[in-house]
Amino acid sequence: MPTVEATTALPYPHAERATAGLRAALREQHPNGEPPDWSKLVVTGPVEARDIRGRTWFHYRAALPVSSSAAH
């Protein structure tokens, strides 16, 4: 089954805000403008990473399967 994915990074750990941003990104990628089935949304993270300036960022990733009818 095809999947759409999105990532985001926040300067603080906040799964709820990350998920809201990820859902917005996935909504734009969803084929044919059909409403996504959010019950199948998988969000992973946070994964901590430091940037070149030593700041910590919290990375989140989301994946959402796309039904075959939406992919056409």
Q: What secondary-structure arrangement, pairings included, does this model have?
A:
Blueprint: E1 3-10, H1 15-29, E2 42-50, E3 56-65
Antiparallel strand pairs: 1-3, 2-3
How does this structure look, described?
By secondary structure, the protein is an alpha+beta fold. It has one domain. The chain is 21% helix and 38% strand. The longest helix is centred in the N-terminal third of the chain and has 15 residues. The protein is elongated. 12% of the residues are buried.
Short description:
The protein has one helix at residues 15-29, and strands spanning 3-10, 42-50, 56-65. With 72 residues, it is an alpha+beta fold.
List keywords for this structure.
3 strands, 21% helix, alpha+beta
User: What is the structural class?
Assistant: alpha+beta
The percentage helix is: 10-25%
- The coarse silhouette is elongated
Uncertain runs: none
Count the domains: 1
Major beta sheet, strand line-up: 1-3-2
Element pattern in H and E: EHEE
Question: What is the CA–CA distance across the termini?
Answer: 12 Å
Taken as a percent bin, the fraction of beta residues is: 35-45%
Biggest beta-sheet profile: 3 strands, antiparallel
Give Rg in angstroms. Answer: 14 Å
Number of distinct beta strands: 3
Mean pLDDT: 92
Summed up, the helix count is 1
